[in-house]
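## retry 2 of 3
previous attempt timed out at serialization; input unchanged, resubmitting
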Amino acid sequence: MRKKIVAGNWKMNKAFQEADDLIYDIVKLVDNNGAKGVEIVICPPFPYLELATDITENESVFVGAQNVSNQESGAFTGEISAMMLNSIEVKYCIVGHSERRKYFNESNHLLAEKADICLNNGIIPIFCCGEVLEERNNGNHFDVVKSQIVESLFHLEPKEFKRVVIAYEPVWAIGTGVTATTEQAQEMHAFIRKLIEEKYNKGIANDTSILYGGSCNPHNAKELFANPDVDGGLIGGASLKADDFYKIIENLL
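## retry succeeded, writing output
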C-alpha cells in the first residue's frame, strides 16, 4: 500500500533561529493535532539538516535534503555526499528539482547517478519531473515527463524502484501562484503510474507514491489530494509557515 506524503521544500530560505523555530512549530502542531497515516518530511537547507534531525528524533516528522552529489567522496569542493546525509539520519533527498535542472544544468543521466547513490546509501529519492509551459502548450508534456522518468529511473531493478517517490511538478506552476487544474494533475499522475506499470508491474505501480508539486497551498490542497492518483504534495512556499504546512497535511488525514 502506497504512502501518503507531504514534503516541505524550504529552498534557500530562513536564518538559523527562524529554521529552529519553524521545525519546533511543525513538530508541535503534529504532536498536538496528529497526522496519522501521513509521512511528513521537511527539507531545510544543508546547514540546518542536523538541527532538523536532532529536533525530529523520535517524532513523526522526517528530514530530507534538497540535493546530493553524484560522487561518493573526494575532491569536490562544496558538494555533499549521500554518505554524509545518511550519517546524520537524513531519510529523504529531493532529486532533479526543476530549479536544479534549470540553473545547474542537471541532466537525466546525472539524476540517474544521484538516484543510484541515494539508494545505495539508504536514502529515499523524491524524484522530480515535469514540463515547462512551452512544452505543455506544444502538447509535448507527456513525452517530456516520460523521458525524464525513463532515462533517470527505469534502469533500476524492481526492488530498488519500489523505494522511490515521484513528484510531478509542472514547472509553469512553481512559485507562480498558478496551479494545475485537478484534471491536469490527475491526468499526469495517472500517466506516470501507467508508465511504471508497463515497465515493472501493476503492484509496484499501485504502491508508488506520486506527489504533486506546483503552488500547492492550504486553499487548493483538498481538491488536488482528492484525485485517486495524487498521494500528497511537494510543497514550496507554503512549507515556510507552520500553520499553512499543517493545514495542507490535514487534507490527507
